[in-house]
Amino acid sequence: ANARSYILTGHKSVIAHGVSANILLVTARLAEPDATGPLAVFAVPHDAPGLRQVSYTTVDGVRASDVWLEQVSVPAGALLNAASDTEACIGEILDTGLAALCAEAIGALDRILAATVEYARNRKQFGVAIGKFQALQHRMADMVLHIEQARSMSYLAAVRCQDGDPAVRRHAMSAAKVVIGQACRFVGQQAVQLHGGMGVTDELDVSHYFKRLMAIELQFGSTDHHLDVFANQLN
After folding, report:
1. Are 19 and 90 within one domain?
2. d(Cα 129, Cα 143) in Å, to the nearest integer?
3. Between helices 86-122 and 166-195, what is the axis angle to 10°?
4. Residues 122 and 55 reside in one and the same domain
5. Predicted confidence (pLDDT) per residue in 102-133, tens digit
6. 111 and 58 part of one domain
């Protein structure tokens, strides 16, 4: 860096809709002579010399890209923030996004449950609807329990996502993501199994909801990641 420009070098992975953006907000550490400097945010044009994107479709159908920055020069005005509270600000933004993601998960869980119940009512085996079999009723009841637990945690995430105390906010958001992530995996897998082979075909909505739920379980930190965060806070 100098008084008039900064040089950015690095790699960012799985940027949702990155190729559709005219400006990319890039986080980077400012290099100091004797140590790593504070975290900064830069506004970088998508066509800046040295910036390269490789686009692809994720498992749930979202367009994403990996971004490489190789000696990308940006003017001093591209630096949006390099204050000591940058990481805290980014954390609050991510927690707000996580709360929205939790709400999306509940909508997808409700839809995949409704589709499964409807299928169980109409699909017949041995002359009766499979929804009449008690073993399958138990599995659908377990799906409902997971969804209602996840719904309660999504309410908690919505209430706490802008809490002024970062520790309280992070504790609640990680707890919500753990419960909702577990629900996404359990309910999604049960829905596919109850549909049988039809559950993984593109013709049925359930396969698309299943893929989205699996992506949500990993987005903004996986269930295992947030479980570690939650456990470390308890310690």
Report:
1. no
2. 19
3. 20
4. no
5. 999 999 999 999 999 999 999 998 899 999 99
6. no
* pLDDT grade for 233, boundaries at 50, 70 and 90: confident
Torsion sign, CA atoms 39, 163, 183, 192: negative
Beta strands in the chain (DSSP E): 5-16, 23-31, 36-45, 51-57, 63-75, 79-81, 124-125, 128-129
Write down the pTM of the prediction: 0.88
Calpha distance 102→157 (Å, rounded): 8
- From 32, 56, 81, give the residue that closes a domain: 81
Contact 194, 116 (CB under 8 A): yes
Whether 179 and 150 have beta carbons less than 8 Å apart is answered as yes
Task: Mark whether 158 and 77 lie in a shared domain.
Answer: no
Chain position carrying tokens 């969804």: 147
Of all residues in the chain, the percent with pLDDT exceeding 70 is 97
Give the number of domains in the chain. Answer: 2
- The pLDDT of residue 189: 97
> Domain containing 13: what range?
5-81
Q: Clarify whether residues 9 and 95 are in a common domain.
A: no
Are the C-beta atoms of residues 45 and 112 closer than 8 Å to each other?
no
CATH of the domain at 199: 1.20.140.10
The predicted model gives 152-174 an average pLDDT of 93
